[in-house]
Structures are given as structure tokens and as C-alpha cells.
């Protein structure tokens, strides 16, 4: 089933700059899709168009094969933009997590069940009574993600979900995204970071600097096409660059590379160090 179907989407900023230029993209139920492109390629704008947060200047988005009205499917669709403060506006974290399902007329018992379940999964139990502005940046991002999840969406759209978070928060969020995908939640993640894509997506919609689709295909096919990524002003993943031309089956992550090197601890440690340096 097609859960998101965008046709000829166009959007220009108030100054006339074209941000999204004739984008066609369809997302099937259960897919993990990355919107990958350089800064300024219109990824965030495209995500907001797909989520119905802004209206396109041209084209349309159809949801679940049923409607073009995003507001009518808010119980099935959640969008998390880059700024956690957009989602954390109540006196406490608990109230922020309860806000979404309360708007869906869930019973008090159901709201509490959803809040407790998501808070436990994102390690927010000890933060529920705190004001959101008292949280660290990583805690705010986890709380904002939790607020998007308490509506129990079928489709989750995320804009740079692990940007500016420490390693522990990054691992928590990525593990959760794996769990959501395993549960059948459809994920669309916007990012300029080719290193992240292999961890969050099975398919990539690659945007060029002009806001148009340069390629749409399996993650392995896109990430190993170093010329294509470079032409789109993106740096190919470090591991891909290391193995490019040396094997027909290029690993996409450090973990993949280490596994293929027969578990050599020294090599694996060296690859980890390279990847850490590359993220700085």
C-alpha cells in the first residue's frame, strides 16, 4: 500500500527561491526512506510538504491512497522537525507527551499507557515531571521524538533526528528507529549525512542542490555511487571511500566492514577510529 504519494511537488520561498522543484516520490507501507541531499537542497521543506505542515505551490500529496488532507490523518502520521522546542511547549514533559493522544480523544487510561510506554523506551521516566526547558539538548530531542510517537503513528517523518546529540542519545534514537521499523512503522528521514543513511534507510531519494530528485533507489546503489554523491555536493561515507574499487561488495558501515574482516580486533578498532574522526 502506498502511504505517501507526492506528484510534481513545487515550493518557493517568499523571496522567490525555488526550494522544491517538481518532486515525485511514493513511499510504500513499511519502507525506510532517506531524503538525502546537501544543505540548501530543500530536504526539510520537502519533509514539511510530505507531512502537510506547509502547502505546496504546485503538485499534491496523497495519504494512504485516500485523501490529500493531511489534517484528516493526524492520528496515523507524525512529523518531527529539527527544532525540539516546536513540540515541547507544556509545563512538563509528561504533559507534552500526553498532548497528541489527548487531541485524538483517547481515554485518560490510554493516554497514560502511551506516555509510560514511550517514556520507558526513550529513558524519559525520570524526566516526566521536569519543565522541557530544563532538559539538555539530547534530552529535548528524545522528548520531542516521544511526543511524536505517543499518537502511535503508522508513518513517521523525521528531520535530522540525531543532529547535535551525543553518542548515547544517538544510539538510543537509532535503536528505537530499528524497533519501529521492525514493528511496521513507515519511516522517512531527512539528512545531509551520507554516513547516517545506511543506519536508517533501505531506500534513498537523492536531492541535488537545486531541490530536484537526482536519483531514487536502494541505499546500497546510491551510497556506493561516489561520483553521483559528489556531483550532488555530498561526501560519500568514509567506509565506502576506503573500500571503493577494492571489492565488488563494498560495506556501508564500520560494523559491516569489521565483520567482513573476520573479526580482526585491530582492524575493527582502526575503522571505528576513522569513522569517529570523520564525524568531527
TrEMBL record:
PROSITE patterns: ABC_TRANSPORTER_1 (PS00211), ABC_TRANSPORTER_2 (PS50893). GO terms for cellular component: ATP-binding cassette (ABC) transporter complex. InterPro entries: AAA+_ATPase, ABC_transporter-like_ATP-bd, ABC_transporter-like_CS, ABC_transpr_CbiO/EcfA_su, ECF_ABC_transporter_ATP-bd, P-loop_NTPase. The keyword Nucleotide-binding applies. Its main location: membrane. GO terms for molecular function: ATP binding; ATP hydrolysis activity; ATPase-coupled transmembrane transporter activity. It is a peripheral membrane protein. SMART domains: AAA. Pfam families: ABC_tran. Residues 4-235 form the ABC transporter domain. Keywords: ATP-binding, Membrane, Nucleotide-binding, Transport. It is found in: Cell membrane. Probably part of an ABC transporter complex. Responsible for energy coupling to the transport system. Belongs to the ABC transporter superfamily. This is Energy-coupling factor ABC transporter ATP-binding protein. The lineage of its organism: Archaea, Methanobacteriati, Methanobacteriota, Stenosarchaea group, Halobacteria.
